[in-house]
Amino acid sequence: MSESQAAGGPQTEALIKASRRITPEDTEEVRHLTLEVLDPAFQFVEGQSIGVLVPGPHPFGNAVHLRRYSIANARPMPLDEGVVIELLVRRCFYLDEVSGERYPGIASNYLCDAQPGDKITITGPYASAFRMPLDNRANLLMIGTGTGIAPFRAFAQHIYERRGDWNGQVRLFYGGRTGLDLMYANDETSDLANYYDEKTFKAFRALGTRPLMRSSEALAQGLEAHAEETLRLMREPNTQVFISGLRKTAEAFNRVMAEQAGGEEAWETLKQSLIDDQRWSELFYD
C-alpha cells in the first residue's frame, strides 16, 4: 500500500468543473468549488465529507497532505453523468509562533489555485456525526460559523429541493465577523435565500458589531435574540441539534443557552438528554 493510500483509504479522481470566488478581492478569499467525480460507484449523503490529497513532497518529508472538507450540496438526482460535489474553501495562512513568518495552508491554497479542467485526487466519503433524520416531522436546529455552514446548505437543499415535504421546523443560525464571513448569506451569492419563504424555514444571520469581534461572539449575539424559541425547540422530543464551525461556536452556544435555561446545571441536564437520545451532533475544526 502506498503512503497516499494509507493516508486516506481508497482514492478516486475528481475534475474541477468550476471555481468561483464569493468574497470581494480586497478581503479574505473564500471560494465555491464544483467538482465532478466520474466513478459511478462514488456516492454520498448529506453531512459527509471528503479528503483532498495534495501531492508532495511537503514539509517534514510527507509524500502527500490530506485535508478533509465537508460536502456543501445534497446528493444528486440519478444521472448518467458523474457525481457533483460542491465545497466551500477559505484560503488559509498560518503564522509561525517562533519566527512570526506567514505560511500558506497547503490544502486550502492548493484548492483555491486549482483551475477548471484540473484533476485532483480525493478520498472518502467519510462517515459524519451529522445524519439527516428520516422523519420529515423532525425539527432541525443548525448552528454554525464560517465555512461550518457547508453541511447545512446540503441539508436545506435535500429537504426542500429533493424531498419537498418537510413538515418540521428548520432553524439556521450562522455568525460572522463581517457580512463577508456569511457565505451564501448575502443576497447576490445566496442560495440559502431560496428557502426563506418556506413556511418551516427561518435563517438568522449575526454580524460582529465591533472591530476584531470573533464570529462566535457575533453568533452569540444573534442567538440571544432568539434564545427563548431555541430553547423551546430543544425541549421538543423531535428536535435534532447540529453545531458546526470553530470550537468557540459551541462555547458561545452553551453560554447563551445556559443563561436562557436558568443556569449551567439546567442547561447541561437538557444537553445531556439530547446526547443520550442521539439528537445532538457536532463537528468542529481548528
From TrEMBL:
Gene3D superfamilies from the UniProt entry: Nucleotide-binding domain of ferredoxin-NADP reductase (FNR) module (3.40.50.80), Translation factors (2.40.30.10)
Molecular function GO terms recorded: oxidoreductase activity
Species per Swiss-Prot/TrEMBL record: Marichromatium gracile (Chromatium gracile)
InterPro entries hit by this protein: FAD-bd_FR_type, Flavoprot_Pyr_Nucl_cyt_Rdtase, FNR, FNR_nucleotide-bd, OxRdtase_FAD/NAD-bd, Riboflavin_synthase-like_b-brl
One Pfam family linked to the record: NAD_binding_1
Annotated PANTHER family: PTHR43314
Region (Disordered): 1-23
Cofactor(s) annotated in UniProt: FAD
Name of protein: Ferredoxin--NADP+ reductase
Keywords attached to this entry: FAD, Flavoprotein, NADP, Oxidoreductase
UniProt domain FAD-binding FR-type: residue ranges: 9-132
